[in-house]
């Protein structure tokens, strides 16, 4: 009887053509009322000697049928996938098609949009875009920027250091903590005069509502013979006015940064009403960036004579000014890949920022 059951079900499993047919066979064989299950119930009516023989045989038969069903199911799934791939083949290099309502799928991320807005505004003021590597030596990231060995920013609590094998005496490398190394590289390559912005990704060991381990900065550098803090103030006020679409006043507060002297933190005029920030109105102030005149040591590291040239530098977070302009409350949402968020805050690919149309 057991050999008959084995032959019967294994042959039917082998010829089954659908998963539904396999399920029917499973129920008929090893389901609660299946033939093998009923045979196992009959073990209680046998003598102990008979149970020792028939019990293992029934268990082996059940395992064999279960394995055969699983293998056949996997084969049917593979065949169905091959059939779908053969009929649903798509050339991914084709242009994107419109959605169900004729609306193009996908959107431009707010960070990408604001990146382009900054580029358009500063380009109108004569700044070109400079780029550099995201993995930097500690000389470009710290030493060339007049950041001393004991500075807290050089600690592993704040900076991501690249792994070095034991005995490796090469200079340490880091994930850049700012885009300032691009300024050093640009000075070394092009000399003075110079007028650049350096947008890009930067990395710091921080994570909360307004900080993430990876974020985006745009830094600016202008070097000439007669550049002053007055030029810096004009450039920043022109930028904020164009960026926010309204006249924005700034306030400079004395501060300290190793790479600038004098240094200043810059606030923009705003109001705080109903839990929202409105830029360009009210009597409140919001700190948005750091700036100052480039330190002579930094100019020398870039191969420029500080007795002949001087300049200003500034840096701000692209993510942060995107939050301010477009009312985004949590920085962490920028990197969640939530399609609902992206559709709400994203931009059409045709919304190219220009000063003529208003960024």
Strand percentage, roughly?
15-25%
Overall mean pLDDT score? 87
Please give the number of β-strands.
Answer: 10
Number of domains: 2
How would you name the CATH homologous superfamily of the largest domain? Bira Bifunctional Protein, Domain 2
Profile the largest sheet.
8 strands, mixed
Question: What is the CATH first-level class name of the largest domain?
Answer: Alpha Beta
Please state the structural category: alpha+beta
Q: Helix and strand succession?
A: HHHHHEEHEHEEHEEEEHEHH
Share of residues in helices? 25-40%
Quaternary class: single chain
**Cα shape:** elongated
Roughly how many Å is the radius of gyration? 34 Å
- Number of H- or I-type helical stretches: 11
Give the arrangement of secondary structure elements:
Blueprint (H helix, E strand, L loop, with lengths): L1 H14 L3 H12 L4 H7 L6 H40 L22 H15 L3 E2 L5 E3 H4 L31 E3 L4 H11 L3 E10 L10 E11 L4 H16 L5 E8 L2 E14 L2 E4 L4 E11 L1 H6 L8 E8 H9 L12 H7 L14
Parallel strand pairs: 1-4
Antiparallel strand pairs: 2-3, 4-5, 5-10, 6-7, 7-8, 7-9, 9-10
